[in-house]
């Protein structure tokens, strides 16, 4: 029986998903600890990678060859850019991911596209990745049925330097069109593409990008909301909408 994989950066993002699965147990695969459980009859693994692109690429890359999941759902918290129109706690789906720190130095703080590919037959622009369209549209229509409205979706931006000022947040948002900032998405999309596994991503808003005031952050609500959204999709996303891609 093929499995599904939920990927989170930190344990507090994984905890609500783990709590909603049946028959959970700890397993070790390729030396990496994971949780195995069931969403109805679906076998689900949860991988907590650790924060950032290096942990994500290394841990995901270690388990994918043996796990070969049908698809990967990346879930967690994220920051909202100032002009995104988002609110705290919102669930947002990634239409694409961009690693902001891949590129060629430019006059602005945002690099220009790198003039060589990062992988054979990879994405058109190095460091830019699209979510699997079948999974994205399937998830959007399921949420529309549940909530009576289309959930926000659009470009996500992956950083290794967390944005810590309103000015930089505004310029990244303006220049990239990004809605959500996070620290893992592009690494997971890159690794999934290397192994030909479809991937999509949901995040719940935990903070406005650029704010370092603790009163502007609500990580706990974001962890719970992202976990609930992930569980809903694990139970309801039908089998026929995903399209595994050939290995790159
Ligand atoms: O900044 C803090 O003080 C802080 C304290 C405890 C935990 C955290 C995190 O877990 C944040 C990093 C984690 O969350 C994602 N995330 C959330 N908001 C942002 C953001 O505005 N920019 C970049 N990453 C963000 C990220 O994916 C990490 O996994 C922080």
Automatic annotation (TrEMBL):
Q: Which UniProt keywords apply?
A: Hydrolase, Menaquinone biosynthesis
EC number(s) recorded for this UniProt protein = 3.2.2.26
Species per Swiss-Prot/TrEMBL record: Desulfobotulus alkaliphilus
The primary gene name is mqnB
The Nucleoside phosphorylase domain, residue ranges: 5-231
The record's section on PANTHER family has:
5'-METHYLTHIOADENOSINE/S-ADENOSYLHOMOCYSTEINE NUCLEOSIDASE (PTHR46832), FUTALOSINE HYDROLASE (PTHR46832:SF2)
Record's catalysed reaction(s): futalosine + H2O = dehypoxanthine futalosine + hypoxanthine
Q: So which domain of life are we looking at?
A: Bacteria
Q: Which GO terms describe its cellular component?
A: cytosol
Family named by the database record: Belongs to the PNP/UDP phosphorylase family. Futalosine hydrolase subfamily.
Protein known as: Futalosine hydrolase
Task: State one molecular function term (GO).
Answer: methylthioadenosine nucleosidase activity
| Role this protein plays | Catalyzes the hydrolysis of futalosine (FL) to dehypoxanthine futalosine (DHFL) and hypoxanthine, a step in the biosynthesis of menaquinone (MK, vitamin K2).
Broad class of enzyme this protein falls into:
hydrolase
- Output the InterPro entries linked to this UniProt entry: FL_hydrolase_MqnB, Nucleoside_phosphorylase_d, Nucleoside_phosphorylase_sf
Family matches, as Gene3D superfamilies: Nucleoside phosphorylase domain (3.40.50.1580)
Coiled-coil annotation reads none
User: What HAMAP family does the record tag this protein with?
Assistant: MqnB
- List, in alphabetical order, the GO biological process terms annotated in this UniProt record: L-methionine salvage from S-adenosylmethionine; menaquinone biosynthetic process; nucleoside metabolic process
Q: Which Pfam families match?
A: PNP_UDP_1 (PF01048)
């Amino acid at each position: 029986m093929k499995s599904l994989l939920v990927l989170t950066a930190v344990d507090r993002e994984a905890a609500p998903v783990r709590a909603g699965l049946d028959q959970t147990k700890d397993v070790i695969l390729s030396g990496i600890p994971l949780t195995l459980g069931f969403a109805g009859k679906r076998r689900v693994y949860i991988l907590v990678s650790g924060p950032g692109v290096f942990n994500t690429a290394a841990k995901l890359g270690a388990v994918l060859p043996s796990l070969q999941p049908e698809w990967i759902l990346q879930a967690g918290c994220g920051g909202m850019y100032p002009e995104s129109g988002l609110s705290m706690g919102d669930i947002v789906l990634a239409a694409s991911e961009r690693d902001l720190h891949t590129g060629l130095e430019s006059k602005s703080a945002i690099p220009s596209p790198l003039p060589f590919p990062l992988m054979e037959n990879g994405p058109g622009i190095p460091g830019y990745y699209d979510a699997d369209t079948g999974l994205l549209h399937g998830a959007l229509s399921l949420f529309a049925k549940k909530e009576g409205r289309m959930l926000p979706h659009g470009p996500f931006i992956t950083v290794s330097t967390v944005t810590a000022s309103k000015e930089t947040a505004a310029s990244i948002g303006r220049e990239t069109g990004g809605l959500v900032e996070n620290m893992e998405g592009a690494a997971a999309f890159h690794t999934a593409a290397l192994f030909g596994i479809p991937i999509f991503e949901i995040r719940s808003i935990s903070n406005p990008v650029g704010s370092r005031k603790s009163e502007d952050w609500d990580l706990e609500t974001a962890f719970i909301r992202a976990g609930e959204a992930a569980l809903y999709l694990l139970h309801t996303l039908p089998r026929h909408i995903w399209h595994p891609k050939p290995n790159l």
